[in-house]
Here is the input.
Amino acid sequence: MNGEPSIDLHTHSNCSDGSLTPTELVSRAAAAGIDVLALTDHDTIAGLADAALRAQELGLHLVAGVEISAGWRSQAIHVLGLWIDPANPALQRALAGQAELRTVRMQRICARLSAVGLPGERLLAAVEANPGLPTRSHLAAALVAEGIVSRSDEAFRKYLRRGRAAHIAAEWPALATVVGWIREAGGIATLAHPARYPLSAAARRQLLAEFAAAGGTAIEVITGANAAHSIEACTQWAIKAGFSASVGSDFHHPQHAWNPLGRLAKLPSGLTPVWRSHGI
Here is the structure.
């Protein structure tokens, strides 16, 4: 790499809720000028092998990653595992458990939709036809395809979010457990988009403290659609707690203009990049 590399450590393929195959994602990242890319699908590492092959062909540095769902005070928290060993047996077992949680939850949600007069079984079949793990984003898309709602956000507003008829709270493993899985697989546990969780200032401080106590060592400072005030807040959290800092678009779809590949702001000064420990 000549000069400062272009880095994106948070992306998704169609192995979870993205729209591109792992190969297509890597090709698009290379075309966007990205030098270092992490594939961090939700609760699965199924796309890493194909992504690695394409990255090798294009001379792009691929970071093996995953985004694991955790629970903290009834709030879903997402933890990125960066530079993980995908062959780690404990991690593979843990992710198999996550897949089972997702499958059972989707079945229960679709049963709720049937109970309010919607075609739950047909919607479930549409979700299961996708190549990746079942997500509520897949279900929202199926509701749009059926003509039940006109947009995905309407699906969440009417049926899927908290307080609606088809909402089923996820029972994710504890935050400390998830951090432990990542560390056991040799990875760096990184808190994804810390400014996005609907928490009070006191609760967020406690989350960061418990994340650090569990062995988390980095937070995402730059992420897709982050406003300037969020970047400043994340910067201060990282400095105060001694976290290293990561950057990631949280890319899912080419049509989403707010988090394109290859257009991330640079880390503010005074922060230690998470990739420094890996010689990048």
